[in-house]
Write a structure and sequence with these properties.
Nucleotidyltransferase, domain 5; globular; alpha/beta
């Protein structure tokens, strides 16, 4: 089977508009965004700090981070980046090869690509502080992003925020190369399990955090 490319394009040019408090992106020919003219976004990230997932021999620790843009005109939310992670900085094997890739390097790349400087979070404060300290100390993470807490007291609030976005056709993300053959992007897989089994994986929690964050902190022209 031939490899399918992610239909969600990467911008080839970006411009930070501080007066309008948004990021303008320009895309080459694609099926989602117009070519040749800028599209204005409010760009935000969302993070689920690493937590224990799985059972028995499959037990592991995993976190998840999302970078998305909300189009100012249509209010569509486009997931540009999604990635599971287990550590902030790289963890090296005894031979000095990278055993686990840290998320700090990726977040630095994403800042240069999207000007994303704010990440929403919803977690136990001790857990957040533990990873926040690692972020602040990381030499690979530059500039340091701002982490904004998103509070909800009932998971049904966050569930509703996601499914309202889906129902209104305002969530754009990639389903992977061949969903029917089990090759899916982790966010798509997590949302299916969330829908069918009410299972909340780190990717789903990050999406819940993003959905509530965009709802609680809407775009405003003034900075």
């Amino acid at each position: 089977m031939s490899r399918m490319q992610n239909p969600i394009p990467k911008p080839w040019r970006i411009m930070l508009d501080r007066e309008r408090n948004c990021t303008t992106m320009y895309f080459q020919e694609n099926s989602i965004f117009p070519s040749g003219r800028g599209v204005d976004f409010m760009v935000r990230g969302a993070v689920c700090w690493p937590a224990t997932v799985g059972n028995g021999v499959d037990t592991a620790t995993e976190g998840f981070v999302i970078v998305a843009g909300q189009e100012l005109e249509s209010k569509r939310v486009v997931v540009f980046e999604q990635r599971p992670f287990v550590c902030v900085d790289h963890i090296l094997a005894p031979d000095r090869m990278i055993q686990y890739e840290g998320i700090a390097h990726r977040m630095t790349v994403w800042h240069s690509r999207y000007y994303v400087d704010t990440y929403y979070w919803h977690d136990h404060l001790d857990t957040h502080n533990r990873y926040l300290i690692q972020m602040l100390r990381s030499e690979m993470l530059n500039p340091k992003p701002w982490f904004a807490e998103v509070i909800w007291h009932d998971d049904n609030q966050a569930k509703h925020a996601i499914w309202e976005m889906v129902t209104h056709n305002r969530l754009v993300h990639w389903a992977g190369e061949a969903p029917e053959h089990g090759r899916m992007q982790p966010l798509y897989d997590a949302l299916l399990r969330f829908r069918d089994k009410e299972e909340i994986l780190p990717a789903t929690k990050a999406m819940m955090t993003l959905a509530i964050g965009l709802e609680r902190f809407p775009w405003r022209a003034e900075t």
